[in-house]
Design a protein that fits this description.
seven-stranded mixed β-sheet, Glutaredoxin, globular, alpha/beta, 4 helices, 143 residues
Length: 143
Amino acid sequence: MKLQALIVSSVLSLMAGSVLAGAPVDVYKSPYCGCCGKWVEHLRARGFEVRTHDVADVPGQRKKLGMPEAYGSCHTAKVGNYLIEGHVPAADVERLLKEKPQAIGLAVPSMPPGSPGMESDRPMPYETLLVRTDGSSRVFARH
């Protein structure tokens, strides 16, 4: 009986993960940015449905969507009720959608080498920030 419960629990956990990963993501990026395309590929590899929107003014789009400029990077995305700024790992997006905190979303400001889409021979440690509704932030994950 314990084995059956374990199997059912494992299957339900996998199903929940795939549902989260299947959430549609709208990415607003420059048509000339190659690393944004690599980040999109990273999300798709994790099962996200990604729609890209080439925009001439990424900072303007970021402001329109509601992500504070202080967290700016090269692209802004919307998934569910959240915004994702920059090269945030897919696992962090999945965790955000699972935990559902009250927040604007997640951000990896600037473009740290080693983050998804910014692969590098010399990766640097970086943090994913949870951007709160008041514009402040806290560390959500360390990489």
